[in-house]
Fold this protein.
Amino acid sequence: MNEMFPAVRMRRLRKLKLIRETLLSTDDLILPLFIDENIEGKNKKPISSMPGQYRFSIEGAVKEVLEARSMGIKSVLLFGIPEQASKDEKGSEAFNKEGVIQRAVRRIKKDVENVVIITDLCLCEYTSHGHCGLVENGSVLNDPTLEVLGKIAVSQAEAGADIVAPSGMMDGMVKAIREKLDEESFSEIAIMSYAAKYNSALYGPFREAADSGYKFGDRSSYQLDFSNAREALREVELDIKEGADIVMVKPAIFHLDIISKVRARFDVPLAAYNVSGEYSMITAASEKGYLNREEVMMEGLTAIKRAGADLIITYFAKEVARVLEQE
Ligand SMILES: [Zn+2]
């Protein structure tokens, strides 16, 4: 038998660097963008907890999307930050026709060709209490929230979104949104569901970025406990049955096992969110000289793809595109 050393030598091919099983491509990348109604003109405002990342005005966002498109990135995920004064208990600004996201989507569609626009679909950026659903007596209500999510979906679809991305982990949200969209003749609009979203400490920097911190409690009544894997698979299965076109695992690098399990069990397209905390950890460590930013970035993102993700939402998207261009 020639199946072992010395006949078999794994290093023969390795040194040629010929075989690479997983290759990142700009096609895999989705760039998240924060669009802030409080910023005027073409300005952008740095996010201090995520060095190198910005909140953009609508004009600024158009410019950013144009740049991303020119680098080969096909898709963006938009988060809206409304005027502080417009926030209320019910998050009404989220489905305002003239809301920040609705206006941004219309502008981007008008000015940028061939870009896939995904809109975050949640209440937390728009409610005065900062939770992802309607609140009564300190608890987040499920079923009444679904109706609001349907309204937001329709208003985003009317503005021109290609995909809506419900991120609030309410039970039945995908079904409610699908029904509402179909009822309003938006059956072409796809749903990317945050199906397995963990209640993660890694979202810290995002809350500053999206101004979506909550005033009381936490999100453990709706987001997954990070100890649980089987529960994540049930969430994914339910969302697929409710009509999700793409399912998502979030965060990505800390939960690669979940990405891999979802990939093995289901055949729907799978997205993974390389979250703010993952971005900021790599950024901070590389600023201190502990790690090489580019190397760790490429290793982390390749691992997400190797685990089974088809799409990767990442703040590194433009940087990765630059690296890929050089290769
Ligand atoms: Zn939310």
